[in-house]
Amino acid sequence: MSLWTAAEAAKATSGQAIGEWTCEGVSIDTRTIEQGDLFVALKAARDGHDFVAQALEKGAGAALVTHRPDGVSEEAPLLLVDDVLTALENLGKAARSRMKGKVVAVTGSVGKTSTKEMLRTVLSGQGKTHASVASYNNHWGVPLTLARMPADTDLAIIEIGMNHPGEIAPLVAFARPHVAVVTTVAPAHLAAFENIEGIAKEKGSIYSGLENGGVAIFNNDLEVTEILKDIASQYADTLVGFGEAETSDVCLSNVTISDTTTVGAARIFDEGYLFKVAVPGRHYAMNAMSVLATVKALDLDMAIAIADLGQWAPGAGRGLRKVISLDLADPSATIELIDDAYNANPASMAASLEVLAGADVKNDRGRISQGRRIAYLADMGELGETEVQIHQSLAKLPSIDEIDRVHCIGPLMRNLYEALPLQKRGRWTEDAAEMVTGIAKDLDAGDVIMAKGSLSMGMARVVDAIEKLGHPAPKVNEGTS
């Protein structure tokens, strides 16, 4: 069954279909477009209409446009609309309306993408599951995710993000979830909000789109939990708090963290469970609690969910661990990289440094013979007037005591660099490109390295440079996907 026929798409968008066509997917990028996709010519940094001919040449089933672009024949399969973004939104609304399954919406200052991916892994074992790709969680990402949703989807997970006040409510109105999750509220985007209470109110607005009988799931360990509960009580029939507080409906009672796994003991209402995720970190255990709360809210099989949860591991840039062989002739000459470079805010930075602090180094290897814990940290953006103090305060985290060397990138991280004890200071550079030039001298066999910073800082360059020091060795999270 096709995702969209010409007639269905035209009806959904109030557009005019040129030709009889069907589409199997929806794409906004000719670099990743697949055979049979509907190409959506959005206007962003570039006008998507400039790429319609290329999309059709690559096998697009049709293109969603406001006009026939130059170089596109009169016979080309098109869907003509007044406004492309509005049409995409309407396509997403139509996909949501025809879907008869359950929808989960996820937001949070930290962990929304990891939680969404956990949910994808867990729910996929209990029905046909559809979820956002990457971090498609903004004004075009949410309707695009919905427009891609097959009509026979049983379970859908929609990630919803924000940078400014008033962004979440319109997006959750498209998704119309049965369950809405706020993973946590932390100091992020403070440049756009006066305080963390303002962030909590915006995150809590995800509950405004709940369907009748909806379930609101929230972190019960926060200073702003009451704000979330107050908002949730206005829209949800059922409120579920998760966390370490004993008053939580879904309570994390114990966490054991090893070098490669996290094992948790949970009380889910009146029943006790053990669960595992194949990555170290208390924050991953907390994400798992919100996932298990969702499983309970959807009345799914908890035993299957916990078994599938144990198969989840983070993706690139979000805590993925890689072992890199520096010398193929010497199996012991390896370093371990914790790739957490996708983004950063104070809460996620603290969580990642805690993981690095607990990592097992390898001694009696390489020129130094003493394995070290080494961090490459770049500026955290959008923190407002307190940005200098927030960066300085990282030096006071308990985890810093267990980290041997901290390399800092960017003008804001200069504040951390100067606050660090002299023996822990590595190098400071203005940008990632400059840091990369010295990485080969920074590292030695037996080291464990973590890279993290805001997306705009380009920490993927640092990760790439570390990976190019050698060759991939067997994965730390072997057996996971």
UniProtKB/TrEMBL annotation:
Q: What is its EC number?
A: 6.3.2.10
Domain Mur ligase C-terminal: start-end pairs: 334-454
Q: Which compartments does it reside in?
A: Cytoplasm
| UniProt GO MF annotations | ATP binding; UDP-N-acetylmuramoyl-tripeptide-D-alanyl-D-alanine ligase activity; UDP-N-acetylmuramoylalanyl-D-glutamyl-2,6-diaminopimelate-D-alanyl-D-alanine ligase activity
Q: Where is the Mur ligase N-terminal catalytic domain?
A: 24-70
The protein's role, per its UniProt record = Involved in cell wall formation. Catalyzes the final step in the synthesis of UDP-N-acetylmuramoyl-pentapeptide, the precursor of murein.
Name the chain's protein.
UDP-N-acetylmuramoyl-tripeptide--D-alanyl-D-alanine ligase
* Species, as recorded: Cognatishimia activa
Q: Could you read off the lineage of the organism from its UniProt record?
A: Bacteria, Pseudomonadati, Pseudomonadota, Alphaproteobacteria, Rhodobacterales
Gene field: murF
